[in-house]
Specification:
The complex is a heterodimer of chains A (110) and B (124). By secondary structure, chain A is mainly beta. Chain A is built from no helices and nine strands. In chain B, a hairpin with a 6-residue loop joins strand 5 and strand 6. The chains are: A mainly beta (110), B mainly beta (124).
């Protein structure tokens, strides 16, 4: 059971906007940044968002992140077939003194 | 180009040991804070361990504390994970990942460089 809670699945049609939530607590998201990773099938994770809402170079601005209290979210607008992947949130947890990942959300583009 | 390559995976019996390596190239490894992250078959990502750029800070997941040891040799551009008393639940693909960080607070889950992973199977 992950300390960060994500919906196991999400879906949308091309062009739609999809949001993936990540719920934590005061010891992780409530006091530290959220990070988001995208993992395409059979590949290593790729950093998608850092420090809540910062996009690394090369990540399209269709991806955006937010953090409010003890939860955060990743939004994908203008959904494309190549966005079909697993998405993970992550944060440092002060109580555990370690990194925690959410359980992951499988995004399906219908 | 910037590259991390893991090696050392294999099949080992429960209770056995294994040493994973992560070889870095194309960037200044000694400036990078590094993590090990694993993924069991069909499961999500699980953080394993962190080491600061100079090896001074180390953190471990509770699930591996006391059994695994993370280390680095900046002269050889290599990150290592010594795994002892292995359990069947340690079966996973092990990834190394990191980012350039030489400050005081580098232990967050900020990894912008990743390897392709090495597979560890613990089975009798």
């Amino acid at each position: 059971q992950s300390v960060l809670t994500q919906p196991p699945s999400a879906s949308g049609t091309p062009g739609q906007r999809v949001t993936i939530s990540c719920s934590g607590s005061s010891s992780n998201i409530g006091s530290n940044y959220i990070y988001w990773y995208q993992q395409l099938p059979g590949t290593a994770p790729k950093l998608l968002m850092y420090r809540n809402n910062q996009r690394p170079s090369g990540v399209p601005d269709r991806f955006s992140g937010s953090n409010s209290g003890t939860s955060g979210s990743l939004a994908i607008s203008g959904l494309r077939s190549e966005d079909e992947a697993d998405y993970y949130c992550a944060a440092w947890d002060d109580r555990l003194s370690g990194v925690i990942f959410g359980g992951g959300t499988k995004l399906t583009v219908l | 180009q910037v590259q991390l390559v893991e090696s050392g995976g294999g099949v080992v019996q429960p209770g056995g040991s294994l040493r994973l390596s992560c070889s870095a190239s194309g960037f200044t490894f000694s400036n990078y804070a590094m993590h090990w992250v694993r993924q069991a078959p069909g499961k999500g990502l699980e953080w394993v361990a962190f080491i600061g750029y100079d090896g001074s800070n180390r953190y471990y997941a509770d699930s591996v504390k006391g059994r695994f040891t993370i280390s680095r040799d900046n002269s050889k551009n290599t990150l290592s994970l010594e795994m002892n008393t292995l359990r069947t639940e340690d079966t996973a693909v092990y990834y190394c990942g990191g980012r350039s960080c030489t400050g005081a607070v580098c232990y967050g889950p900020y990894m912008d460089v990743w390897g392709k992973g090495t597979t560890v199977i613990v089975s009798s």
